[in-house]
């Protein structure tokens, strides 16, 4: 599409809230700088646990109404981040949240875990060939922390990047497009340890009953594996607002937050990446588009 901005960033995520937790500051930073930011979310997060007691009835084992509710939360979050191009893979509700690994929901025929890979990737190829992003952000092969929908999101995103570049694949979906750079979400161990130390220093005044460990969080790696850092400090308030928009899933307390497991962790407005495809412009890039010919 020739009327889109020159720099185009695509993010592919499993559930509403993942985009904000992982990339909220990055999305807000690039949107504010005039880049086109496209978010593709693969499920509605129907199987998520609900934090506010007054909304507990939405859960899958009660009203099973969490998906449509989270659609509204995601719309509020993307608005806070300044992101206007948001889609669901194959359309809202095409794939259902698979639940945690080993849960019976993994076997539902409509679950994302059961999706046929090339069919799901085909939906993303259509987006890639329309938007023609230079940069793609998604998860590592473990999906960061082993959730089936995050693993599947990784597979679909990487497969779609390959298929979109193949001129022989689905010519009905538009001209082939090669994404110049692909990044996986990462968190450097030293940064998260420093955040935990800030939480521990609060002692009994801390906002959450317990503090997470690096093993509880997705994508934590040795600092040396980080190849790109996006300083989104100027958009930290937008990220915090977007996190608060996901109220069924996230409890925000100042510079900290917790998911339904009640484990406190730092809210980071600087976000970290590992380049896995394409050429790095520097040992530690500070711009995901660095070196990309526009
Ligand atoms: Zn998720």
UniProtKB/TrEMBL annotation:
<feature type="binding site">
    <location>
        <position position="15"/>
    </location>
    <ligand>
        <name>Zn(2+)</name>
    </ligand>
</feature>
<comment type="similarity">
    <text>Belongs to the MshB deacetylase family.</text>
</comment>
<dbReference type="InterPro" id="IPR024078">
    <property type="entry name" value="LmbE-like_dom_sf"/>
</dbReference>
<comment type="function">
    <text>Catalyzes the deacetylation of 1D-myo-inositol 2-acetamido-2-deoxy-alpha-D-glucopyranoside (GlcNAc-Ins) in the mycothiol biosynthesis pathway.</text>
</comment>
<keyword id="KW-0479">Metal-binding</keyword>
<feature type="binding site">
    <location>
        <position position="18"/>
    </location>
    <ligand>
        <name>Zn(2+)</name>
    </ligand>
</feature>
<keyword id="KW-0862">Zinc</keyword>
<dbReference type="InterPro" id="IPR003737">
    <property type="entry name" value="GlcNAc_PI_deacetylase-related"/>
</dbReference>
<feature type="binding site">
    <location>
        <position position="150"/>
    </location>
    <ligand>
        <name>Zn(2+)</name>
    </ligand>
</feature>
<keyword id="KW-0378">Hydrolase</keyword>
<dbReference type="InterPro" id="IPR017810">
    <property type="entry name" value="Mycothiol_biosynthesis_MshB"/>
</dbReference>
<dbReference type="Pfam" id="PF02585">
    <property type="entry name" value="PIG-L"/>
</dbReference>
<protein>
    <recommendedName>
        <fullName>1D-myo-inositol 2-acetamido-2-deoxy-alpha-D-glucopyranoside deacetylase</fullName>
        <ecNumber>3.5.1.103</ecNumber>
    </recommendedName>
</protein>
């Amino acid at each position: 599409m020739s009327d889109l901005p020159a720099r185009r960033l695509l993010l592919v995520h499993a559930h509403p809230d993942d985009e904000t937790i992982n990339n909220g500051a990055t999305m807000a930073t690039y949107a504010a700088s005039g880049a086109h930011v496209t978010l593709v979310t693969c499920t509605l997060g129907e199987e998520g646990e609900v934090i506010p007691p007054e909304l507990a009835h939405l859960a899958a084992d009660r009203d099973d109404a969490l998906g449509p509710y989270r659609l509204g939360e995601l719309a509020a979050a993307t608005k806070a981040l300044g992101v206007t191009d948001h889609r669901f893979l194959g359309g809202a509700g095409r794939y259902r949240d698979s639940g945690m690994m080993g849960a019976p929901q993994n076997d539902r025929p409509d679950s994302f875990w059961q999706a046929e890979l090339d069919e799901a990737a085909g939906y993303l190829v259509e987006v890639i060939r329309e938007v023609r992003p230079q940069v793609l952000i998604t998860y590592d092969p473990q999906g960061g922390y082993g959730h089936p929908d995050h693993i599947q999101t990784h597979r679909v995103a990487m497969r779609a990047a390959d298929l979109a570049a193949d001129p022989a694949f689905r010519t009905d979906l538009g001209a082939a497009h090669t994404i110049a750079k692909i990044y996986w979400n990462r968190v450097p161990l030293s940064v998260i340890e420093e955040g935990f130390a800030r939480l521990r220093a609060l002692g009994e005044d801390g906002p959450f009953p317990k503090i997470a460990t690096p093993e509880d969080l997705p994508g934590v790696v040795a600092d040396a594996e980080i190849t790109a850092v996006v300083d989104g400090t100027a958009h930290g308030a937008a990220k915090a607002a977007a996190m608060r928009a996901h109220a069924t899933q996230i409890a925000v307390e100042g510079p900290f937050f917790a998911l339904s497991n009640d484990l406190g962790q730092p809210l980071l407005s600087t976000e970290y990446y590992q380049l896995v495809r394409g050429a790095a412009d520097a040992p530690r890039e500070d711009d995901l588009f660095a070196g990309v010919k526009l």
